[in-house]
Design a protein that fits this description.
With 321 residues, the chain is an alpha/beta fold. The chain is 45% helix and 15% strand. The protein contains 14 helices and eleven strands. The relative contact order is 0.16.
């Protein structure tokens, strides 16, 4: 489908170049790479969930390298304090005053590694940064760089010494991406690359293919994708259906609906569509809502999953023609 202006085509090609560049280091995770791009275009954040060893950290490092953006990594541990993330006041003996020393959150891409291993007090230090894109300390509000993206990782199978993210924290993430073990052929390719000398710590072969200015232009372009009243009604109907589901204790909020609209727009723009379709909404539904819905205890006990409920909601909700 033709685009609105040639500029959109150039920006879209640049975003696809990012995906190609990341693919030089990360094999078999095309869906996760695309998810990161969608979150970036929609000005959101990403929660990456997967067992150890499936390249979650490598994925984020490669993504930021291809974007040419400044990135910081924070290893979340039980003894990490909020000031270790946002920054703290340091006494300057020479001037006799306190100076603010910026924390690692003052960057374009923040890798919050194993975010569920730190207590809620430290987890909540990211709430203002993720929502308002600023940090307040000692009565002063300091803006964060633009673009700004938090990519957090967590392990779904190890619960000892972890702290489950509360709903308010989960709601700050635009997408929750599930990182699975790659297919057999992709796993063989991973070993082949390592046998040839690839080092996940160096990433020497990756080069920046875009810059901050083009990323901001792409974000504006994605936001300009059209949406009809019928599609807005479809998103609302899906949200209301989750609230009425007998398996769901906490359904999709109005903010969850706006998040779905943003991710559908970004996905449509990447595909060259001037307006979103029901397919775009359905494609982005699970990654946008799976962490925002809470199952009833009896449904969990019966083995029901959030993704299964979402699939059922899609089947039962009328699709606009």
């Amino acid at each position: 489908m033709s685009d609105i202006t040639p500029d959109h085509n150039a920006l879209r090609a640049a975003m696809h170049d990012v995906r190609t560049e990341v693919g030089k280091a990360v094999v078999g995770q095309d869906g996760a790479i695309t998810g990161l791009l969608v979150a970036l275009l929609a000005r959101g954040h990403v929660l990456l969930e997967g067992v150890p060893g499936v390249a979650k950290t490598l994925l984020v490092r490669s993504f930021s390298r291809a974007l040419g953006l400044d990135t910081h990594r924070v290893q979340f541990t039980p003894d990490l304090m909020p000031g270790d993330v946002t920054g703290s006041l340091i006494y300057n003996a020479r001037d006799g005053e306190f100076d603010f020393r910026e924390g690692p959150v003052f960057t374009n891409v923040l890798l919050a590694d194993e975010i569920n291993r730190t207590p809620p007090k430290t987890q909540s230090s990211l709430l203002e940064a993720m929502e308002e894109r600023q940090v307040s300390a000692d009565g002063v509000t300091r803006p964060l760089p633009d673009p700004f993206l938090v990519a957090a990782t967590q392990n779904p199978i190890e619960h000892e010494g972890t702290y489950e993210l509360p709903e308010a924290q989960l709601d700050r993430f635009l997408l929750k991406l599930l990182i699975d073990v790659p297919e057999r052929d992709a796993e063989i390719d991973v070993l082949r690359r390592h046998a040839a000398g690839f080092s996940p710590r160096e990433l020497e072969g990756l080069v920046p293919v875009v810059d901050a200015e083009r990323i901001r232009a792409a974000q504006r372009a994605a936001a300009s994708v059209g949406v009809s009243d019928d599609l807005l009604g479809y998103i609302v109907d899906l949200a209301r259906a989750t609230r009425e589901s007998p398996s769901i204790q906490l359904g999709a909020s109005p903010r969850a609906a706006t998040a779905l609209l943003a991710t559908a727009k970004a996905w449509a723009w990447l595909g060259g569509y001037p307006a979103i379709t029901p397919d775009h909404v359905q494609t982005m539904l699970a990654p946008t809502w799976r962490h925002r819905l809470r199952l009833r205890p009896e449904a969990e006990f019966e083995g029901v999953t959030v993704d299964a409920v979402i699939a059922s909601v899609v089947q039962q909700t009328r699709v606009p023609l």
